[in-house]
Write a sequence for this structure.
């Protein structure tokens, strides 16, 4: 059983800054991250995409070098040479190697003699419940079985620290749950040769179920905004009231407005004015979410945790949608609850044309970039403007990828609302209505 | 080349395997096949290192009894070139993918070499290799092998480089997190990942190589004429003697050889390489080969692979033990100064080479020569454009039709492949006879020769594209009664367009290259030449006029490169963006 604190640190991360793009400059993805991993704990990194949590994992794994700051694996008496191994979201198995050969890969690189290699690999395969599949090729296995191979491959090199990058998110719900339970059993029984686990996830329930400590990351740039200790006894029950309370609490923390002085109602997107980064959220998904919250049993008010459950959405998908609704004044995030505004409830009852008109006015009133594009088009005599112009403008404030995504999003919303049209071939915005 | 280390059927020790497994019928068949291949190889190799005078003592004759021997020599040449290309590919492409600095030089170099007319180089290489081994056949052999090599190596290396660049990031991260040594990473990840594309490319390159074997075995440079024993020389002599029967025999022999190495060599390798295909789900139809099945049944396969695996294991065992990644991951500053020095050195070298070649050409040629070369290049360009357009008009509808009929596609695929492998230069005499007989203008009627060998790329790719049109799209089109022109405009043509561009790009590059042999053709004492850059280079080669050859090659490379950049690349980008069905 894991014990918290009072144990020697395993990994120390100090003053870590990391950028994407060539030095000097680039886009800041991790901002002043400090982190200490103790022995015998499972720590979760929770955040939405773009929060740099996977990057942090790779920095600790030594797969990338930090631009500023340090990551140190701390040696101790019983472990003079600490090492790490990683489990990947996509399994990352070599399709031309059998299960056994895949598991032996790391040992082979360490030049472990063949006989020992085989017995250790067979031991790991046995431990993880894969016996009988030793000579199968990955393509013959189901997703869950493949991830077990990934786990065995990581465990067989006796890592001090096991890094897991969203290890269950590519699996279906049932398989993922079985794998989680099996992993937790092995951990509690102390049968894995590891001292700690660092788990990246964007599934809040998964984090609460598995971790002793959860670090919540903000996005753009990634920063640790909260540290939550999970003291619930193991094995944990998802339906346990304290479990639910903690999940709701984390939802609330993740929807909380950042401390910095931003216009309160601009939601949680980084940047202000036209420099606001807009997530790719489809208008259909927004309408669907509003209809869901408007209907029974929510009747206009739903807790994010329940919504995530009933819609089978992960944080990564649900949060941008909820926040977009907030930006458009169709909803309000109140603690861990999503509250529809009267406008949204009218929207749900409206027909297609009325919906479009409502969406258009919300867009023009509350999304500065949409406003900006429309104003430029109105001002110009030909009512046309190259998209390049806006892309350049956005790139002054954000990275190229974000600029591209933001412009795509606003194009999609604007087309739906019919406040402007866009021709991809000519890369041109205009006010013409295609017949 | 990962071994067949199937733990369910562990590899027995060598001696035990020989004693304990009783040979079966398949063993006998396989032994006979492998034994005769080895015997043939040594028989052919004897002739390679003979003194040069033997070429005059035993000149190539049109005696049918010798034809199999000539074919053997040609095949050995081709496989030697293929081996050299493969080694070149593995070393150079890996270097380019691993080191950013090396890549900066290698990638553009490969890109340019791919579009340079290889045949124009024969002049330089023959002289060079003959100087390397004076008085020995080996020098001329190497020159011929090098000619084939230059037709294969660049695109093989380029495709392998592209495979290496598309290795999934997660697999790369696995090898790095386990600190696999560069060598082990190569054998465990890079080589297996690149193998299917490499094998496919080698197969296509082998087909292309025939064209150059025919052109390079009998070559005249200035006043030296060399005739290596081989099918190419046989053809050259048959053309000189106006012997249609001999040409027919050579064609039949070639057909036999092409079928033989396809069945005995490439099919088994394709079937074997299928295991390296990067896919996470098992696909339905896997490539099959009777030879591969035979070898598998005889348990000879581990025996054949054993030397390769042994070599790999030895290499891996010999490399020093590496330290794991350091536990301290503090930020480090890259060396900016060294980077700048490197950039400056590359730039300097490029400038120096441009100056050097400019100096070489301009020292003996004037602006008028350059203007002439450009004018002729424009003529050849018109030919290429018209021919590609005509070939597209013919082959796109046929390719679409074949591609949409799976039964016919399966039946015709090997035929098309065979036709592509078939060196078009064999047909040149027929055209000469026709042109001379009807007093046609060579400027027009020699042109089709340029595309004879390369049109198949268009057909291949269109077939592939048409069979890749999703069934649901075709069903939707049928349900809404989309027919005739609308069907072509909105279903078939957009569907095959990305594939067509790939095929047309290859075909146009190949046609430029072929113009060197196609614009100047001989039948006995009849010489026909069309006005164009190809015949310009051919004439300069025969005259041993090196500055003109260099000028011709330079101008042609320039045209091909700009053609690729200004026409094909934008079309390709458009197709990728708008029409790729995925």
């Amino acid at each position: 059983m894991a014990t918290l604190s009072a144990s020697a640190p395993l990994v120390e991360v100090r003053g870590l800054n990391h950028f994407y793009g060539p030095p000097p400059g680039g886009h800041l993805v991790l901002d002043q991250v400090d982190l200490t991993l103790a022995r015998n704990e499972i720590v979760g990194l929770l955040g939405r995409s773009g929060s740099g949590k996977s990057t942090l994992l790779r920095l600790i794994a030594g797969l990338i070098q930090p631009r500023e700051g340090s990551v140190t694996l701390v040696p101790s008496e019983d472990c003079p040479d600490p090492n790490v191994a990683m489990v990947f979201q996509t399994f990352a198995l070599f399709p031309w190697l059998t299960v056994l050969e895949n598991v032996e890969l790391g040992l082979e690189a360490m030049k472990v003699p063949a006989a020992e290699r085989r017995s250790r690999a067979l031991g790991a395969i046995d431990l993880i419940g894969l016996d009988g599949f030793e000579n199968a090729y990955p393509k013959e296995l189901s997703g869950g079985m493949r991830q077990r191979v990934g786990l065995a491959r990581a465990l067989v090199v006796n890592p001090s620290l096991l890094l897991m990058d969203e290890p269950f998110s590519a699996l279906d719900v049932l398989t993922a749950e079985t794998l989680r339970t099996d992993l937790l059993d092995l951990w509690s029984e102390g049968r894995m040769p590891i001292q700690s686990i660092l788990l990246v996830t964007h599934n809040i329930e998964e984090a609460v179920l598995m971790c002793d400590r959860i670090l919540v990351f903000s996005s753009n740039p990634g920063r640790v905004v909260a540290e939550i200790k999970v003291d619930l006894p193991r094995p944990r029950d998802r339906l346990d009231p304290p479990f639910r309370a903690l999940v709701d609490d984390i939802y609330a923390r993740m929807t909380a407005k950042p401390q910095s002085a931003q216009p309160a109602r601009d939601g949680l997107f980084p940047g202000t004015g036209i420099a606001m980064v807009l997530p790719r959220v489809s208008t259909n998904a927004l309408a669907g979410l509003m209809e869901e919250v408007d209907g029974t049993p929510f009747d206009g008010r739903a807790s994010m945790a329940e919504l995530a459950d009933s819609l089978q959405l992960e944080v990564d998908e649900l949060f941008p949608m909820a926040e977009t609704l907030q930006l458009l004044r169709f909803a309000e995030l109140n603690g861990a609850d999503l509250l529809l505004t009267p406008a949204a409830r009218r929207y749900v009852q409206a027909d297609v044309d009325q919906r479009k008109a409502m969406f258009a006015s919300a867009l023009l009133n509350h999304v500065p970039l949409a406003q900006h594009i429309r104003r430029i088009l109105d001002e110009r005599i030909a009512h046309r403007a190259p998209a390049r112009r806006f892309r350049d403008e956005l790139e002054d404030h954000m990275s190229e990828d974000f600029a591209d995504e933001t412009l795509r999003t606003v194009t999609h919303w604007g087309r739906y609302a019919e406040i402007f049209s866009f021709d991809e071939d000519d890369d041109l915005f205009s006010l013409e209505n295609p017949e | 080349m990962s071994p067949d280390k199937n733990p369910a059927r562990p590899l027995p020790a060598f001696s035990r395997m020989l004693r304990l497994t009783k040979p079966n019928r398949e063993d006998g068949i396989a032994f006979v096949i492998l034994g005769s291949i080895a015997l043939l190889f040594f028989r052919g190799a004897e002739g390679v290192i003979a003194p040069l005078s033997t070429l005059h003592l035993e000149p190539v004759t049109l005696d049918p009894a010798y034809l199999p021997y000539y074919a053997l020599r040609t095949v050995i040449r081709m496989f030697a070139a293929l081996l050299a290309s493969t080694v070149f590919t593995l070393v150079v492409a890996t270097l380019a993918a691993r080191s950013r600095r090396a890549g900066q030089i290698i990638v553009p170099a490969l890109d340019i070499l791919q579009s340079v007319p290889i045949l124009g180089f024969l002049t330089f290489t023959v002289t060079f290799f003959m100087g390397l081994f004076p008085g020995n056949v080996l020098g001329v052999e190497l020159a011929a092998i090098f000619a084939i090599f230059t037709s294969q190596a660049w695109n093989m290396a380029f495709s392998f480089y592209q495979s290496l660049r598309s290795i999934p990031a997660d697999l790369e991260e696995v090898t790095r997190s386990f600190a696999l040594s560069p060598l082990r990473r190569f054998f465990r990840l890079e080589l297996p990942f690149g193998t299917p594309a490499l094998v496919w490319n080698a197969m296509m390159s082998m087909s292309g190589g025939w064209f150059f074997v025919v052109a390079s075995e009998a070559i005249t440079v200035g006043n030296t004429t060399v005739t290596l024993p081989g099918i190419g020389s046989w053809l050259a002599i048959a053309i000189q003697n106006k012997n249609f029967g001999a040409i027919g025999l050579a064609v039949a022999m070639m057909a036999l050889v092409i079928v033989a190495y396809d069945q005995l060599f490439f099919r088994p390798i394709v079937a074997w390489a299928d295991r390296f295909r990067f896919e996470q789900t098992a696909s339905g139809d896997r490539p099959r080969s009777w030879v591969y099945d035979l070898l598998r049944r005889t348990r000879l396969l581990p025996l054949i692979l054993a030397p390769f695996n042994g070599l790999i294991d030895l290499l891996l065992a010999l490399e020093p033990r590496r330290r794991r990644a350091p536990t301290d991951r503090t930020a480090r500053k890259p060396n900016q100064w060294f980077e700048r020095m490197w950039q400056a050195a590359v730039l300097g070298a490029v400038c120096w080479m441009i100056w050097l070649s400019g100096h070489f050409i301009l020292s003996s040629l004037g602006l008028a020569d350059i203007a002439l070369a450009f004018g002729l290049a424009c003529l050849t360009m018109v030919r290429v454009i018209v021919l590609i357009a005509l070939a597209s008009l013919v082959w796109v509808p046929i390719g679409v039709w074949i591609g949409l009929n799976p039964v016919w596609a399966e039946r015709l695929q090997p035929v098309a492949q065979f036709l592509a492998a078939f060196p078009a230069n064999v047909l040149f005499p027929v055209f000469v006879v026709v042109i001379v007989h009807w007093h046609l203008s060579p400027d027009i009627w020699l042109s089709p020769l340029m595309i004879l060998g390369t049109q198949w790329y268009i057909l291949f790719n269109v077939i592939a594209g048409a069979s890749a049109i999703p069934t649901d799209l075709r069903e939707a089109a049928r349900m809404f009664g989309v027919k005739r022109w609308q069907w072509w405009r909105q279903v078939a043509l957009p569907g095959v367009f990305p594939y067509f561009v790939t095929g047309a790009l290859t075909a146009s590059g190949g046609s430029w290259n072929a113009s060197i042999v196609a614009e100047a053709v001989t039948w006995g004492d009849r010489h026909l030449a069309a006005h164009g850059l190809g015949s310009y280079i051919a004439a300069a080669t025969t005259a041993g006029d090196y500055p003109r050859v260099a000028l011709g090659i330079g101008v042609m490379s320039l045209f091909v490169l700009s053609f690729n950049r200004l026409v094909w690349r934008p079309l390709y980008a458009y197709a990728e963006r708008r029409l790729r069905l995925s």
User: Anything to note?
Assistant: Residues 1-6, 259-267 of chain A have pLDDT under 50 and may be disordered. Chain A has two domains: 9-253, 274-430.
